[in-house]
């Protein structure tokens, strides 16, 4: 995709644009375009349109990557559709998809908001298995989760990590 077109599409997504998606399909059916459309509808809180674009991308022959899958899960999170998010992951994993840091990070954040501490920590371990440090946002989610669940020791640990990363 030409860089100029890509930048326009990225700007459109950041602004939460979702009104004229069809014209973007005419521009390009590249994976990046598809991912940005899923991301836009996810941010707009429209999981049905996000999933439509996700499925269309697959129909075009693209395999969803970690970033696109994370965007789809964000769309489900906006409407608290955990069952659909987990079903999507199971479908994708059956087809060979392996979640990465982006997907796990979104899920850690979501599970943390629901105070599902054990489940969030299991996913945190999966991030560590990929030899990558969890993103800053994950540490914020962990700190919030532990603080709201009154797990003082872990909240203080998470806060320490945040302070260290901020310096």
From TrEMBL:
Cited SUPFAM superfamilies: HCP-like
PPR repeat locations: 30-64, 65-99, 100-134
Alphabetized InterPro entries for the sequence: PPR_rpt, TPR-like_helical_dom_sf
Key words of the record: Repeat
NCBIfam families in alphabetical order: PPR
Name the UniProt record assigns to this protein: Pentatricopeptide repeat-containing protein
